[in-house]
Amino acid sequence: MRKIGILGGTFDPPHNGHLLIANEVLQGLDLAEVWFMPNQEPPHKQMSEGASTDDRVKMLELAIYGHPNFKIETIELERSGRSFTIDTMRLLKNEYPNVDFYFIIGADMIEYLPKWNKIDELINLVTFVGVNRPDFLEVTSYPVINVTVPEMGVSSKLIRTRIKEQKTIRYLVPEPVRMYIEEKKLYGT
Hints:
Blueprint (H helix, E strand, L loop, with lengths): L1 E8 L6 H13 L4 E6 L14 H12 L5 E3 L12 H11 L3 E8 H6 L6 H4 L3 E6 L12 E4 L8 H9 L10 H10 L5
């Protein structure tokens, strides 16, 4: 069985923290690949007035370019409305029956697991992998493999805020992503 990690999110924009998490889990659990899975509308938060779906996918392509074990999975973008992980994982397990999926979540989502849609079924479809985040505990009654990653206090919200305040985002996002944001005048640049 191939071991594939899935890192879901809005990626609005993708940043170096996303890449660091993916790479640490890839290496730490000896995964074959990590798939970045942008979502349409996450059930746990309101979408911001951010970049279009096409822009988010393009920025992800630029961010992971050259990494042979990073891929993009757009299954959640092909459905409208809220994206529930259980629905996505049912589809992926049907399409890839010989894959063990490792669903990567931050410590903030570890605390939120009891509220996930059909969590008791979901834990039979995926192995959850939790990564540390500042100000959140990695405690749950659900089975989660914890992977420690170097802490990087960067978020997509921080990047959007810095852009609005006309501050630099250099070294927070991959350089091609920074250039794309400027070229497309995203987030108020």
